[in-house]
Amino acid sequence: MSYGLYDQRHRYRRRMWGRIGKMVLWLLLLGGIAGFSYLVGVEQLKSREGSMQDELVTMIAARDKAERRAAQLQQIAQTQEVRANELEIRLQREVPSGDVARLTELISRKLAEGVNADRIAFLIEQTSNARSCARAETKRFVLPTPIYRGANTSVAFADGSVTVSGEGVPARNATGSPEAWFDPTKPVTLRINRADGTTDEKTGVLPLEYSVMTRESEVKLTMAAGARSFVEVTGEVCRFP
Fold first, then answer.
1. What is the rounded distance in angstroms from the CA atom of residue 201 to the CA atom of residue 205?
2. In sequence order, which residues have a C-beta less than 8 Å from that of residue 64 and are 6 or more positions away?
3. Which terminus of the chain faces fewer neighbouring Cβ atoms within 10 Å, N or C?
4. Which residue ranges in the chain fall short of pLDDT 70?
5. Exposed e or buried b per residue across 210-230, where buried means at least 16 C-beta atoms within 10 angstroms of its C-beta
6. 88 with 165, same domain?
7. Strand arrangement, sheet containing 217-225
8. Does residue 184 have a cis bond before it (omega within 30 degrees)?
9. What's the total number of domains in the chain?
């Protein structure tokens, strides 16, 4: 009986130790798995940290490059602005405007018409504000209309080298019928004829002013409405150049 009891206890202890051994093995296995997972996680974190550091370095380098490019572009923009200001100043200095532009256009037109450049230069050199003018004289003429075309319809100045004539719009009476004389409130057309055969026209409501250049004189004309049917012309003849 004692031997059987001993064997039973022995088998119990053996099973118990077997269970304990299995548990230890499981614990060791779980511990190994946990340790391995921890090591893998640490390596992944280290790898991710390294990747993030590389990205950070790349981003910092890109930012520095962008800042340098922005500084270069700003410098280029400032340089272009300075150049634009210089060109604007140069344009204002070299391109004529106002009276200079008008005279430049006139000189170009005269050269294109075949006028000798030396003559233009001589005339400009001889021109000044001081003028030698004869005493102004006033003459009058009958302004023709489509209804009236009689005598005394022109006046002459500068020894006949400049002649003024023209035409007006007939005035109307109370019934609306046209009269023989012109209407001074309507535009008139005045013709200024030169001795060389050229003619200029001036159109508008009186009074009108016009300057005529001849070979040796400048004739300044002031034309205004006079007595009924008449236009009064005041001519001032000045030596030119």
1. 13
2. none
3. N
4. 1-7, 10, 91-97, 122-123, 125-131, 240-241
5. bebebeebbbbbebbbbeebb
6. no
7. 137-142, 230-239, 217-225, 208-213
8. no
9. 3
For residue 239, what pLDDT is reported?
78
Phi-psi region of 78 (alpha: psi -120 to 50; beta: other; left: phi over 0): alpha
Give me the residues paired with residue 219 across strands. 212, 237
Eight-state DSSP code of residue 195: T
The amino acid occupying position 195 is: A
- Whole-structure pTM value: 0.48
- Within 10 angstroms of residue 49's Cβ, the number of other Cβ atoms is 10
Write out the residue range of the structural domain in which residue 216 sits. 132-239
The answer to whether the beta carbons of residues 163 and 155 sit under 8 Å apart is yes
pLDDT in tens, 39-49: 777 777 777 77
Nearest to 235 by CA among 166, 157, 160: 157
Cα–Cα–Cα angle for 205, 208, 211, rounded to 5 degrees: 150
CA distance 169 to 185: 9
Query: Which of 166, 169, 225 shows the shortest CA–CA distance to 190?
Result: 166
